[in-house]
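User: What would this chain look like folded?
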Amino acid sequence: MKIISEAKAHGGRQGVYSMQSDACGCDMTFAVFRPLQAKEQLCPVVWFLSGLTCTHANVMDKGEYRRMASELGLIIVCPDTSPRGDHVPDEPDNWQFGKGAGFYLDATQSPWSRHYQMETHILEELSERVAGHFAADMGRQGIMGHSMGGHGALTFALRHPDRFKSCSAFAPIVQPSTADWSRPALEKYLGPDEAMWRRHDATQLIADGARFPEFLVDQGTADGFLENGLRPWLLEKACTEADIGLTLRMQEGYDHSYNFISSFMDDHLSWHAARLG
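Assistant: Here's the prediction, encoded as C-alpha cells.
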C-alpha cells in the first residue's frame, strides 16, 4: 500500500492511498478518514460508494463528512468507482459505462471481466487493507452511497446483512435492471440473461427474499434523474411488501449534486453511528 497524501482534519487524519489490485489488474486509489479516537481504539467503519463519473475524491472534497465523523468516532472509507489505467478497456464517450461506472459488480463478459471486478475489490481486497492498517472494527461496518453508489450500498447490504449493520443512500438507483442509464451497463458487464442481473438490483433482491432491517434514503425533488433513473417509489413498494423498514425523505428543491449530499451528511452519519454502537 502506498501513501499518496495525509493531512490532519478535525483532529483526525484524512489520507489518500493506492494499492495493487489483483482483482482489477491495476493500481486502485482510495481515501480513508480516521478520527482521533482511532489512535486509542478500534472504530466502526462506514463505506461511502460514489456515483457515475466520480472517483474517491468527489465525496472526500465535497461531502463534508469529517467534522461529524470525528465527533462520532467513525472511520470513513471512500473507494474508487472503477478500475483505472490506459490498459483498462473503456467507452470514452459513454459516461454511463466503463471507467467511472463500474456499478459495483464483478463483470462476466469480455473484455470487461478482466478488470471490472469492483465487488471483489471492495468486499475482499480493500476490506483486508482497511482491517489491517486503519484501526477498523470490522465487526461494526455500515455502508452508504450516492446514485450508482447508492445502488451498490443497497445491494451489498441486502446480500451481506451479517457484515453490514447499517445502510443508507442518497438518490440511489434502486432498480438498475430497468433504469435508462444502468440497464445497458448491466447487459454489457453481465450478458443478456437478465436472471444474472437480479443480484445487482435492490428491488429484485428483495423480491427474491433478501432482507435487511432498515434503510435511510434521501432524495431531492429537483433531481433531474428522479423520474427515469432513480424512482425511489419502487424501493418503497418493495420494502413495504417485504416488511423492511424504510425512511424515505423527499427533500424539497434539492438536486443530484454534492450540495444535496453535504446538506444531509450529518443525518446519515448519525444514523449509522446509532446502529453501529
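The first strand starts at residue 2 and ends at 9. If you want, I can go into more detail on any region.
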